[in-house]
Amino acid sequence: MSTAIRPSVPLPLVIIAGCIIAAIGFGTRGSFGLFTLPVTEDLGLSREQWGMAMAIQNLVWGLAQPFAGGMADRYGTGRVLALGGIVYAAGVLGMAFSPDTLTMTLTAGVVTGVGIAIASFGVVMAAFGRVVPAEKRSFVFGIATAASSAGQFIFAPLGQGFINAFGWQMALVWIAMLLLLIIPLSAALRGRAESVPGEADLPFMQALSRAWGYGSYRLLVIGFFVCGFHLAFINVHMPAYLVQCGLSPEVGSWTIAVIGLFNIAGSLLSGWLGSRLPKQLLLALIYFLRAIAIGAFLLFPVSEITAYAFAAAMGLLWLSTVPLTAGLVSLFFGPRYMGMLYGIAFLSHQIGSFVGVWLGGYVYDLTGAYDLVWYLGIILGLASAAIHIPINERTDSSFALKAA
Question: Transmembrane ranges (predicted)?
Answer without folding.
Answer: 12-30, 50-68, 80-98, 104-127, 139-159, 171-190, 211-234, 254-274, 281-302, 308-333, 340-360, 372-391
